[in-house]
Q: What sequence folds into this?
C-alpha cells in the first residue's frame, strides 16, 4: 500500500461521510417538518383552545354569580318595594 492508495481510501471515506452527513441532515429536516412541527402546531392550537375554554367558563361562572347576587338584592324588602314602585 502506497501513498496514492491511502489518498484514494481517504477520499472514498470522505465522500461516503459527506454523503452520509447530507442524508442524515436531510432525514432530520424531513423528520422535523413532518413530525415535530405539526405536533407543536397541534399542541399550540389545543392549549389555545383550552385557555379560551377556561376563560369562557370563568365568565359564565361570573355571570351566574352576578345573577344570583342581583336576585338576592332584589329579594330584600326595601329594594323589592322600590322596584315595584318603578314598574
A:
Amino acid at each position: 500500500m502506497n501513498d496514492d492508495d491511502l489518498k484514494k481510501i481517504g477520499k472514498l471515506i470522505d465522500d461516503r461521510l459527506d454523503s452520509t452527513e447530507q442524508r442524515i441532515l436531510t432525514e432530520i429536516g424531513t423528520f422535523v417538518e413532518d413530525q415535530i412541527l405539526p405536533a407543536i402546531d397541534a399542541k399550540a392550537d389545543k392549549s389555545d383552545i383550552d385557555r379560551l375554554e377556561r376563560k369562557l367558563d370563568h365568565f359564565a361562572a361570573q355571570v351566574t354569580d352576578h345573577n344570583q347576587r342581583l336576585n338576592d338584592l332584589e329579594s330584600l324588602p326595601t329594594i323589592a318595594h322600590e322596584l315595584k314602585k318603578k314598574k
Q: What stands out?
A: The radius of gyration is 36 Å. The CA atoms of residues 74 and 81 lie 9 Å apart. The chain has a mean pLDDT of 85.
